[in-house]
């Protein structure tokens, strides 16, 4: 999950606008029922012979206080119905997917150009002109015959503040590579956005999830040239999504960028703070349940547990009772690390890249990665030069960047948080917060 620091007033305005959006949708549904649009939507959902199943919605305003993209970010009006093939346009990109529908954004800019906008979700927030909604079965039928097996794909999952965006910038500079950096659909809060899925412990293992992920991958890769190379910065993952990629796309390479626990999770405290409003903002970005036990429901803490064993997570949450967001950050870090350890134990090839190694030996780390991917050695200089620049230039302001750096003081000021973090790490059989962690086979 990606959240920027907002003043308390902005958080309040975000929550207010979100409720206005619910009111707006209620009014729209009433109008659509009067003018017949609702009947056509029903036909597109239930009649396989309907030849214009895509509903095109024009964006008339977007929530300016929402810095992560959901369908509810946008205020829209119905424009027209269209054939399903409209979503194959190069300007159309998948935004979210549930058990009933797939939602796309239409943007008039070059999404893969991460030098100008290092996150795909950011473009989808700022540049969307239309939303396009397809019934889920129509979407599955559309992508069924798309063949993308000739693409050379590199996945990078990661923790926080670990250099993953810098790696996206590196690959963006390499000739013949296309970069997708955190498409919004890959965020758990959207991919699992259907409450029925969130509450099902077996969801990640289900055929439905496999179809969702496979269709998502195909939908993005079909935008790239045949036989091209693609770097995909995936943001959230669990061991089941890694298994699905390994099984259904066995030629894809998987990396995991990480850094030590303490500097990685410090940004949760520095960026999010410990205010009730900050926690409310995090909650409403995902499922908006607004109940006191929200943090302790494993289905809703999915973004912080990466879909890891829910029964285990439930026990740890009940035992530790995390309070500060830095403690949830520790939970998030531990679940990610454990997910990769489990994948490695299962024989899946995941190559970890440690941030501290990249900092201490830039050329050596880049050379090892390029050798593994058969990238010509004469491109190492380009990569090292790219790493001299700010990987998120233009995305976040200076004050946010300074806040996102590690604050060593939080580990001396709050002994209770330190102990709860250590309790979490012990439950995951990982070293304590002041220790260093490294996979046995790390770039």
Describe this structure in a few short sentences:
This protein is of the alpha/beta class and 443 residues long. It is 46% helix and 15% strand.
Describe the protein:
This protein has 443 residues and is α/β, with parallel strands linked by helices. The chain folds into two domains: 136 residues, no CATH class; 276 residues, Rossmann fold (3-Layer(aba) Sandwich), CATH 3.40.50. It is built from 20 helices and ten strands. The strands form two sheets. Strands 2-1-5-4-3 form a five-stranded antiparallel beta sheet. Strand 3 and strand 4 form a beta hairpin. The longest helix has 28 residues. The two termini are 25 Å apart.
Features of this protein?
443 residues; alpha/beta; Rossmann fold; 2 domains; five-stranded antiparallel β-sheet; 15% strand; globular; disordered N terminus
Would you spell out the secondary-structure blueprint of this structure?
Layout: H1 8-35, H2 37-46, E1 54-62, E2 74-82, E3 92-97, E4 101-107, H3 120-126, E5 128-135, H4 136-143, E6 152-158, H5 164-172, E7 177-181, H6 188-191, H7 195-198, H8 207-221, E8 229-235, H9 239-248, E9 253-258, H10 261-272, H11 276-286, H12 302-305, H13 310-320, H14 325-345, E10 351-354, H15 355-360, H16 362-372, H17 380-386, H18 398-404, H19 410-413, H20 415-427
Parallel strand pairs: 6-8, 6-9, 7-8, 9-10
Antiparallel strand pairs: 1-2, 1-5, 3-4, 4-5
Helix pairs in contact: 1-11, 5-17, 10-14, 14-20, 16-17
């Amino acid at each position: 999950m990606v959240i920027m620091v907002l003043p308390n007033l902005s958080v309040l305005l975000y929550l207010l606008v979100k409720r206005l959006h619910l009111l707006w949708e209620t009014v729209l549904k009433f109008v659509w029922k009067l003018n017949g649009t609702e009947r056509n939507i029903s036909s597109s959902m239930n009649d396989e012979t309907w030849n214009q199943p895509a509903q095109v919605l024009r964006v008339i305003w977007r929530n300016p206080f929402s810095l992560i993209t959901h369908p509810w970010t946008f205020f829209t009006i119905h424009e027209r119905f269209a054939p399903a093939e409209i979503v194959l346009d190069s300007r159309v990109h998948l935004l979210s997917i549930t058990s009933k529908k797939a939602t796309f954004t239409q943007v008039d800019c070059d999404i893969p150009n991460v030098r100008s906008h290092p996150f795909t979700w950011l473009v989808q927030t700022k540049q969307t002109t239309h939303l396009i909604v397809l019934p889920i079965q129509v979407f599955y039928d559309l992508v069924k015959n798309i063949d993308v097996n000739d693409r050379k794909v590199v996945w990078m999952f990661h923790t926080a503040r670990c250099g993953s965006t810098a790696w996206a910038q590196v690959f963006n500079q390499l000739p013949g590579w296309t970069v997708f950096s955190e498409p919004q659909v890959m965020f758990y809060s959207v991919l699992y956005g259907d409450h029925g899925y969130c509450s099902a412990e077996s969801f990640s293992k289900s055929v439905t999830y496999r179809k969702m992920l496979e269709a998502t991958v195909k939908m993005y890769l079909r935008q790239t040239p045949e036989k091209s190379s693609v770097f995909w910065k995936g943001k959230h993952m669990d061991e089941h999504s890694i298994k699905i990629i390994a099984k259904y796309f066995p030629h894809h390479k998987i990396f995991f960028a990480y850094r030590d626990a303490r500097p990685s999770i410090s940004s949760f405290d520095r960026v999010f703070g410990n205010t009730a409003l900050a926690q409310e903002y995090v909650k409403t970005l995902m499922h908006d349940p607004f109940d006191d036990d929200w943090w302790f429901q494993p289905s809703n803490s999915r973004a912080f547990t990466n879909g890891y064993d829910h029964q285990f997570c439930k026990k740890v949450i009940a035992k530790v009772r995390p309070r500060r967001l830095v403690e949830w950050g520790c939970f998030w870090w531990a679940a990610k690390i454990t997910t990769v350890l489990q994948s490695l134990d299962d024989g899946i090839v995941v190559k970890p890249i440690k941030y501290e190694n990249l900092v201490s030996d830039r050329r050596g780390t880049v050379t090892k990665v390029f050798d593994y991917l058969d990238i010509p050695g004469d491109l190492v200089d380009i990569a090292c030069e790219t790493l001299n620049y700010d990987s998120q230039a233009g995305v976040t302001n200076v004050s946010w960047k300074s806040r996102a750096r590690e604050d060593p003081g939080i580990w001396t000021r709050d002994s209770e948080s330190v102990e709860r973090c250590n309790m979490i790490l012990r439950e995951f059989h990982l070293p304590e917060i002041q220790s260093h962690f490294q996979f046995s086979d790390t770039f």
